[in-house]
């Protein structure tokens, strides 16, 4: 593999020293030598060209080598350029220590011995070539992994779609079958069939959504919607499950929030569905509550906070930070006891990020959880009246 030439900048106010160093380093054919006699001239050279090494004299006519090193180490573009200090004056141990404290990789005492300089530069040149080789390999590996990841995501998306289509047909036929004359035993069979089908469809939809998110194929659709209707219609389907578990399910929307908003209502419903579903799943006694409040508003924009609180089993302290990771649940027994793919919260977090919002959780084991969602929306220009 052929690499670019090793670019060295010599900074020294003595032209004779520069000539000597160029003659020595000229023996290394891989090196390209540039020189500067002042600190300011060196900075101009560094701004024009990327260097692999700076050989820097301490005593310069404008700024000294230490100050120039501070400048280089304080900027992102130049912070990683290796510096070798050299001096015939500043040879005491305290000055050498200062050079290393400023980030130098070496400190040479003038007059510099030819063999010593050649050996050091060859050593740094070898390191540079190895580093460059590793970087090329890493870039190649990353590209290969990205390609594999895209292929995996596309495969999952295609497979999920292919499975979902016949699954919808199975559910449709089962629901039609439910309308025919059946014995009590047959009704139970169909009920189980529909319930199992819906559970499988939920898993398939999670995988499909996750695949789209991972492949970067999810686009937001900003439409006008009624916040009041959206929240009410989102909560209603969960009332039956709450009633079966003798749980109280309530929601509250603060009155100062305008009702007509503009944003991706479909994705908002998807996120709230995930949070409410989890809250009901992990709550056996008590209540689940959805609160919507206004954090701030400016002209036609506002930031809303949605909080889903429950009195459920909570999350162990050592698991709170990982609940939004893919294929992760609060406890290893969670999947066994409650089912699910472990994708719901990961999908929600990704959707929230795409919507320029944030999501976090506050929880204590055996004391319930609060999932706090903050998302910006626009106020409809035709409907800026508060809820009543």
User: In CATH, what is the homologous superfamily of the largest domain?
Assistant: Histidine kinase-like ATPase, C-terminal domain
Radius of gyration, in Å, reads: 33 Å
Major beta-sheet overview: 7 strands, mixed
What is the third-level CATH name, the topology of the largest domain? Answer: Heat Shock Protein 90
Oligomer, anyone? Answer: single chain
**Arithmetic mean of pLDDT:** 86
Poorly predicted parts: 334-339
**How many domains, in number, for the residues?**
3
Structural class: alpha/beta
Q: Number of helical segments?
A: 10
Sum up the structure in keywords.
five-stranded parallel sheet, Rossmann fold, Heat Shock Protein 90, seven-stranded mixed sheet, Helix Hairpins, 388 residues, 20% strand, single chain, alpha/beta
Describe the structure.
This protein is an alpha/beta fold and 388 residues long. The protein contains ten helices and twelve strands. The chain has helices at residues 15-25, 39-48, 65-73, 93-101, 114-178, 184-214, 227-244, 265-281, 334-338, 344-354; strands at residues 6-11, 31-36, 53-57, 83-87, 106-109, 223-226, 248-253, 260-263, 287-298, 301-310, 358-363, 369-379. The strands form two sheets. Strands 6, 7, 8, 9, 10, 11 and 12 form a seven-stranded mixed sheet that branches. Strand 9 and strand 10 form a beta hairpin. The longest helix has 65 residues, at 114-178. 27% of the residues are buried. Mean pLDDT is 86; it is low at 334-339.
């Amino acid at each position: 593999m052929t690499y670019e030439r090793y670019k060295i900048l010599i900074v020294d106010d003595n032209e004779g020293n520069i000539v000597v160093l160029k003659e020595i380093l000229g023996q290394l054919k891989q090196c390209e030598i540039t020189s500067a006699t002042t600190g300011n001239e060196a900075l101009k050279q560094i701004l024009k060209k990327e260097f692999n090494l700076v050989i820097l004299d301490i005593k310069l006519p404008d700024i000294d080598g230490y100050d120039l090193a501070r400048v280089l180490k304080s900027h992102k573009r130049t912070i990683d350029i290796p510096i070798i200090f050299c001096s015939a004056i500043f040879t005491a141990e305290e000055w050498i220590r200062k050079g290393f404290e400023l980030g130098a990789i070496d400190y040479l005492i003038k007059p510099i011995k030819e063999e010593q300089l050649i050996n050091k530069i060859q050593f740094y040149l070898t390191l540079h070539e190895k580093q460059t080789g590793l970087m090329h390999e890493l870039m190649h590996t990353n590209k290969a992994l990205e390609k594999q990841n895209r292929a995996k995501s596309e495969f999952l998306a295609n497979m999920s779609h292919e499975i979902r289509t016949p699954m919808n047909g199975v559910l449709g036929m089962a629901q039609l079958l439910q309308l025919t004359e059946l014995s009590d035993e047959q009704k139970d069979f169909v009920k189980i069939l529909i319930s199992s089908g819906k559970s499988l469809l939920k898993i398939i939809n999670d995988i499909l959504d996750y695949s789209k998110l991972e492949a970067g194929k999810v686009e937001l659709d900003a439409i006008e919607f009624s916040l009041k209707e959206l929240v009410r219609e989102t909560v209603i389907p969960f009332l039956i499950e709450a009633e079966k578990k003798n749980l109280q399910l309530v929601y509250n929307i603060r009155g100062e929030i305008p009702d007509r908003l503009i944003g991706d209502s479909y994705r908002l419903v998807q996120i709230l569905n995930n949070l409410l579903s989890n809250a009901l799943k992990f709550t056996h006694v008590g209540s689940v509550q959805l609160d919507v409040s206004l954090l701030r508003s400016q002209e036609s924009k506002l930031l809303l906070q949605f909080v889903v609180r429950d009195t459920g089993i909570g999350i162990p302290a050592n698991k709170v930070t990982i609940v939004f990771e893919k294929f992760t649940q609060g406890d290893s027994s969670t999947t066994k006891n409650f089912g699910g793919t472990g994708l719901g919260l990961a999908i929600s977090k990704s959707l929230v990020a795409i919507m320029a919002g944030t999501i976090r959780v506050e929880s204590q084991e055996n004391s319930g959880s609060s999932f706090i969602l903050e998302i910006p929306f626009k106020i409809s220009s035709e409907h800026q009246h508060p809820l009543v």
